[in-house]
Design goal:
ten-stranded mixed β-sheet; Pseudouridine synthase; single chain; 16 strands; 3 domains; Structural Genomics Hypothetical 15.5 Kd Protein In mrcA-pckA Intergenic Region, Chain A; 9 helices; elongated; four-stranded antiparallel β-sheet
Amino acid sequence: MSEEELTEYQELYEHHRFRVDAGQAPVRIDKYLATRIVNASRTRIQYAAEAGNILVNNSPVKPSYKIKPGDIIQVLLPTPPREIELIPEDIPLNILYEDDDVIVINKEAGMVVHPAYGNYTGTLVNALMWHFRDMPLFSTGELRPGLVHRLDKNTSGILVVAKNEIAQNRLARQFFDRRTGRIYNALVWGTPDPPEGTITGHVGRNLKDRKIMQVFPDGSHGKPAVTHYRVIESFGYVSHVECRLETGRTHQIRVHFAHIKHPLFNDAEYGGDKILRGTTFSRYQQFVKNCFELLPRQALHARTLSFDHPSTGKRMTFESDLPDDMKKVIEKWREYTSGKAEK
């Protein structure tokens, strides 16, 4: 496994690390780990290994791998190793699809996906815990909704959640291998040139403000990130664009477009909440402010998600229409610029 691949593997979280003792006799890795990880059954370990999430000396191994003295074993899982208590809450969900393995949600803007500092309640995971409350493993607390990707609080659209561990491991592996399809719609300031292209540049935590991300073109920090885009409709001052993710870094689309000087419309964290294009006429200034009020968030929507079903292998694709706030603002720009050209 290359250094780049190993870096990207950290999209999964290391839960356990072991160095095999010098006197250890050869034994299957699933058996070895089952005796060393509290509350981890051999079956659970096998699921992780079959999905490629158990590494020995930085390379994935099968459950049958025989460990050797000096081996470095890592157990990587799609969820952070430390989580706060998850409390079920009766919050309505827009469910597009559900079966025994997965549930596909159309998330509204404003909903946090996972409880964290400052957002312990009212999240998608709290809502899912309520939705799953009658399933034995969820009601006893032995299982939690399996997040394999996330959407920012103020980004709307589709995400898939696993309902069991084998589904979670298999889906997480698909995201890591870039076998999922993710298409977003965004409204950005100005018109990207060329109108169809690719944005690259490592994405990592901002060196001065850890709450936001930053592009590192020289690759000195962060992880490789690739965003393909095309302009759907240009209004001069702003443009409606489609984005296809090749990688899925935190804030990737938002920080990539900010990096090329076309931040997302009303994206406060990346400078898009200011009037960046257009005239100083008071009528225009008021028009933009009205748009900000109609769309009080970054203009980003996860429109399409494709993945292989973790049990059947069938390719599944889900689509979500643009939400009303984005539709209304795009229509307002269309009307405002009708018959005009940016001066």
